[in-house]
Design a protein that fits this description.
Elements: E1 2-6, H1 10-22, E2 26-30, H2 33-42, E3 47-50, H3 59-68, E4 75-79, H4 84-92, E5 97-100, H5 105-119, E6 127-128, E7 132-135, E8 140-143, E9 149-150, H6 153-164, H7 172-179, H8 190-202, E10 208-210, E11 214-216
Parallel strand pairs: 1-2, 1-3, 3-4, 4-5
Antiparallel strand pairs: 6-7, 7-8, 8-9, 10-11
The chain binds calcium ion (CA).
Length: 221
């Protein structure tokens, strides 16, 4: 999953980006509102983390522009602004959650998971399609009837990207987009390599290849 972090504070930005990477998100970081809007106009993101006090265009303006152009991307505000008025403007303006600085990274990650679940239409903490389930906290996958297997961050990212939409075929580019942030080098056969590793761990039937198009997990029951 790809996350855009919009934050002008270098220390917070660096810490959050590192934590996102650690949690197996592909994370891109921009430092002002205008760049955020431009970036969101040309790249798919699964979630945005938005600071409010930004140089140039303020975070609430960024949020308003996004929703005005009918961009439904899940969005969590992270800010030191704790007035009721700011919180209400953020939530009424279309933010999905609001987290006050300073926050604990573990809470930020939990809230992101909760927002992604709600947006995905599921209250269940595990992703799954009836064949394989994935625990986003432990990064463990389990095929029905077998013990859970630990996945690497990138194996986890790839399987999560597929399990978010069981039955949908994702191309190599779409998978790379969800696994790698800016500046991360992508080997030309990286996706095949990860699929191979996942099949070794979970069995060859879990991920299907649709020749010339991409990969999918079955739509399940
Ligand atoms: Ca700020």
């Amino acid at each position: 999953m790809r996350v855009l972090l919009v934050e002008d504070d270098p220390m917070i930005g660096e810490a959050v980006r590192a934590a996102l990477k650690d949690a197996a998100y592909a994370a891109d970081w921009v430092k002002n509102g205008q760049t955020a809007l431009t970036t969101l106009g040309c790249q798919h993101y699964d979630l945005v983390l938005l600071d409010l006090g930004l140089p140039g265009r303020d975070g609430l303006e960024v949020l308003a522009s996004l929703r005005a152009r009918a961009d439904p991307v899940p969005l969590v505000i992270i800010t030191a602004r704790d007035s009721l008025d700011d919180r209400l403007r953020g939530l009424d303006g279309g933010a999905d959650d609001y987290l006050l600085k300073p926050f604990d990274i573990a809470e930020l990650l939990a809230r992101m998971r909760a927002v992604l679940r709600r947006k995905g239409g599921s209250a269940a903490p595990l992703l799954g399609n009836g064949v394989v389930s994935l625990d986003p906290v432990l990064k463990e996958a389990a095929v029905a009837g077998a013990s859970p297997v630990q996945l690497s961050n990138r194996e986890f990212s790839l399987l999560r990207a597929l399990l978010v939409r069981p039955g949908a075929i994702l191309s190599r580019t779409e998978l790379e987009d969800r696994i790698y942030g800016w500046g991360e080098e992508v080997e030309s056969n990286a996706v095949e390599f990860l699929i191979h590793a996942l099949r070794r761990k979970l069995g060859s039937d879990v991920i299907r290849n649709v020749r010339g198009v991409g990969w999918m997990v079955s739509g399940g029951a």
